[in-house]
């Protein structure tokens, strides 16, 4: 087996690993995106579809991805190379790792811009900047924050620096320390805000908005959005979990950790939704306000409520911490890859990749002002193009490849060395999901997201299914023979 030139670190405990993975999963996806897509898609029924995607598709891929990292014992590129060599498979499987490294940097490039905005709002709130704010003023505030590329770029830069400082210090001194500090803080703030939400008088309305399912409201598009978001929110399909899995020791249980990660991520998304919608309803605001929900709606509420200064600051601090623990995990696959190639130290690798990603991020900064209507792909500006390319194409593609490798290419005996289920039923569910649900779901997402009309959608679906069955059949024969 090909070795990397640098020794691979290890998490100091199973618990730290779980916290780091939860930290990666819980981020802007939970607090910013989930509430607004749930709001846009009518609540209840969407939430149920989302939960189904998380447990039926997300959990098995998460388990598979972490296991592939532990089996390959390296950064995602090298890990997939090792896994391919070990299973007599094509070296082309390294492509899965490369796809992830690139997608991670691309996501990070816009992630730090949105997270930077949350950082700016945190300081605004601390200075009492939301006091007695009405809808117009909230709109004006948002517009003024994003209108200047210098201001937005400043916060993007600051947040990027935080990320780089942590990643440069390595797994134990950087990632673990930050996680140990941030995750308890995050949970505490969340509980305080949830307590506050129950006292707004609109908590019941918020609960029924999130859970009362009216399936007549559900559209096909909502199903696609839910599926795509399941990948994003669990940090799967990109190699983040593979990189983190490489640091998992032999004795730790991947299945148990994965169940924790999925349950925590889901609970936190739901709590964030309940908090935000309680505030929204208590102030007679619109739940379907789109991406601006967090930045244009909540400051009004914080400006009107008693103690809004404290709760507003806590809320945006929560967003910043959640985003930071995710940002480091977006950079880790690329940094570990460059470091383990042996030419650069970890600090150098972080600086190089950070500078590159920061530069790409300027495209997103400009997408909020000068380049707002400079369309790259369809009617999408730079930001929307990067988001579409990664969330709708590269992540599902990564997820599909992980599922195919784990379900077909990975030899049973090799897999058993790193992944064991104590429960037969669960094992069967895992195999079925990776073999049939995931490929089908991802193909559907692809075919529809490319939105080329019915003819092309059908062609993509049919070609995809035939190619998939052919490959599966060949692996099946090889393993049997
Ligand atoms: N899951 C994080 C969120 O919800 C974002 C994230 C971190 C991510 N690492 C990832 C998304 C890897 C996809 C792949 O905000």
From TrEMBL:
GO terms for molecular function: symporter activity. SUPFAM superfamilies: SNF-like (SSF161070). Its main location: membrane. Coiled coil: none annotated. It is a multi-pass membrane protein. InterPro entries: Na/ntran_symport, SNS_sf, YocR/YhdH-like. Keywords: Membrane, Symport, Transmembrane, Transmembrane helix, Transport. Pfam families: SNF. It is found in: Membrane. The chain crosses the membrane at residues 12-32, 44-63, 101-123, 150-171, 178-198, 218-247, 259-285, 305-331, 351-371, 383-408, 429-448, 454-473. The keyword Nucleotidyltransferase does not apply. GO terms for cellular component: membrane. NCBIfam families: Na_transp. Belongs to the sodium:neurotransmitter symporter (SNF) (TC 2.A.22) family. PANTHER family: TRANSPORTER. This is Transporter. It comes from Thiomicrospira cyclica (strain DSM 14477 / JCM 11371 / ALM1).
């Amino acid at each position: 087996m090909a070795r990397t030139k640098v020794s691979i670190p290890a998490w100091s405990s199973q618990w730290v690993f779980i916290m780091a993975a939860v930290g990666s999963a819980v981020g802007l996806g939970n607090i910013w995106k989930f509430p607004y897509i749930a709001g846009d898609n009518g609540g209840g029924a969407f939430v149920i579809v989302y939960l189904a995607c998380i447990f039926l598709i997300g959990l098995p891929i998460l388990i598979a991805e972490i296991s592939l990292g532990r089996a390959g014992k390296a950064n995602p590129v090298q890990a997939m190379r090792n896994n391919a060599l070990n299973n007599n498979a094509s070296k082309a499987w390294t492509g899965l790792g490369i796809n992830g490294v690139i997608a991670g940097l691309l996501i990070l490039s816009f992630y730090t811009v949105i997270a930077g905005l949350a950082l700016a709002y945190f300081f605004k709130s601390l200075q009492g900047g939301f006091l007695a704010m009405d809808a117009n003023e909230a709109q004006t505030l948002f517009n003024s924050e994003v209108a200047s590329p210098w201001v937005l770029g400043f916060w993007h830069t600051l947040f990027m620096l935080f990320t780089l400082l942590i990643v440069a210090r390595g797994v134990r001194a950087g990632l673990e320390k930050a996680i140990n500090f941030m995750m308890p803080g995050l949970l505490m703030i969340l509980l305080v805000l949830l307590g506050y939400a129950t006292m707004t008088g609109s908590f019941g309305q918020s609960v029924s908005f999130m859970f009362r399912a009216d399936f007549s409201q559900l559209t096909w598009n909502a199903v696609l959005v839910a599926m795509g978001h399941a990948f994003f929110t669990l940090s799967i399909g990109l190699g983040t979990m593979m990189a983190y899995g490489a640091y998992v020791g032999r004795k730790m249980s991947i299945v148990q950790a994965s169940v924790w990660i999925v349950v925590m991520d889901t609970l936190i998304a739901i709590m964030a939704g309940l908090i935000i919608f309680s505030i929204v309803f208590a102030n007679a605001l619109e739940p379907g306000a789109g991406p601006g929900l967090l930045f244009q709606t909540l400051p009004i509420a914080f400006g009107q409520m008693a103690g809004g200064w404290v709760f507003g600051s806590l809320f945006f601090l929560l967003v910043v911490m959640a985003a930071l623990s995710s940002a480091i995990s977006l950079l880790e696959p690329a940094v570990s890859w460059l470091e383990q190639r042996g030419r650069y130290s970890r600090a150098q690798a972080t600086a190089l990749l950070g500078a590159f990603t920061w530069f790409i991020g300027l495209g997103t900064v400009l997408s909020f002002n000068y380049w707002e209507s400079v369309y790259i792909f369809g009617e999408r500006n730079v930001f929307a193009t990067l988001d579409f390319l990664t969330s709708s194409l590269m992540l599902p593609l990564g997820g599909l490849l992980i599922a195919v490798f784990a379900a077909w290419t990975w030899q049973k005996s090799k897999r058993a060395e790193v992944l064991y289920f104590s429960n037969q039923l669960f094992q069967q569910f895992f195999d079925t999901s990776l073999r049939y649900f995931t490929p089908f779901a991802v193909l559907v997402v692809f075919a529809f997201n490319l939105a080329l009309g019915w003819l092309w959608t059908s062609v993509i679906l049919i070609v995809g299914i035939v190619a998939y069955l052919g490959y599966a059949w060949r692996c099946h024969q090889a393993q049997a023979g």
